[in-house]
Amino acid sequence: MTNKTPSLDLFGDDLPIVPSTNARPEAAALVEVLLTLRAHPMVAWAERMNSGAAHIGGRFVRFGWTGCPDVLGQTKDGRLLGVEVKAAKGRLRPEQGVFLKRIRAAGGVAFMARDCRDVFLNLDIAGGKQA
After folding, report:
1. What are the tens digits of pLDDT across the range 51-81?
2. Is 71 helix (H, G, I), strand (E, B) or coil?
3. Which of 5, 55, 92, 106 has the maximum number of C-beta atoms within 10 A of its C-beta?
4. Which of 80, 127, 75, 129 is nearest to 102 (CA)?
5. b/e map 76-101, b = 16+ CB within 10 Å
6. CA 130, 118, 105, 38 torsion-angle sign
7. CA-CA distance, 116 to 95, in Å (whole number)?
8. Residue 4 DSSP one-character state
9. Pair 66, 94: CB distance under 8 Å
């Protein structure tokens, strides 16, 4: 998909048309997974967890914690929900896998998802349905 509408800069001059591409497949997967989770009848709530670090005003600020899933939420039966979202070729880092295992060990629902199919499959399993 390309952007065919010319843009204007600060002085009113036309800017060149730049084709838009999905250079961030994990971001697209995150949107799909989050929308699916929020609409799923088993999920009470699901929110994006921003993690990482940045320099803000000369200070180094860390967001989230190591291994924190991309999405945290809760199932309607009260269990913690943790979902790590990856693009088609993405892999879990060791600390991400450990955190998902911790959630499952405590009785929560935790999995990696690449798209809505992974969400449905894993929530069906967590809800006691055979996949």
Report:
1. 778 889 999 888 888 889 999 999 999 999 9
2. strand
3. 92
4. 80
5. eeebbbbbbbbeeeeeeeeebeebbe
6. negative
7. 24
8. -
9. no
